[in-house]
Amino acid sequence: MRYAETMADDTQQISLAARTRDEIALEMMKFIAVTTGHGKGTGAAGFTGKTTKTPEEYTDALLQLFERCRAVIGKEKD
């Protein structure tokens, strides 16, 4: 019975560590996106063509930023 408890604890720790890295990467992504306006189009007065990104383009930009943040956090932990 003790072996099963130890194994369950190990699994929870591994899951917690992976989740924590993702949470850190998510917080990092939020900070970068909010402070820099990452992914949003630049608004400009006058005739400038396409000034804002579509929701799909904005989502893609945020997902790419999240993946970059995960890569950075993964490098720091290894």
Please count the beta strands (DSSP E, at least 2 residues each): 0
Number of helices: 2
Please write the string of helix (H) and strand (E) elements: HH
Note the main sheet: none
What average pLDDT do the residues reach?
Answer: 76
Counted up, domains total: 1
Class derived from helix and strand content: mainly alpha
Give me the Rg, rounded: 19 Å
**Strand proportion:** under 5%
Helix content: over 70%
Uncertain residue ranges: none
Give a brief rundown of this model.
Helix content is 74%, strand content 0%. The chain is an all-alpha fold.
Summarize the SSE layout with pairings.
Blueprint: H1 2-36, H2 55-77
Helix pairs in contact: 1-2
Question: Can you give a write-up of this model?
Answer:
It is elongated and about 50 Å long. The protein contains 2 helices and no strands. It has 78 residues and is an all-alpha fold.
Which features does this protein show?
mainly alpha
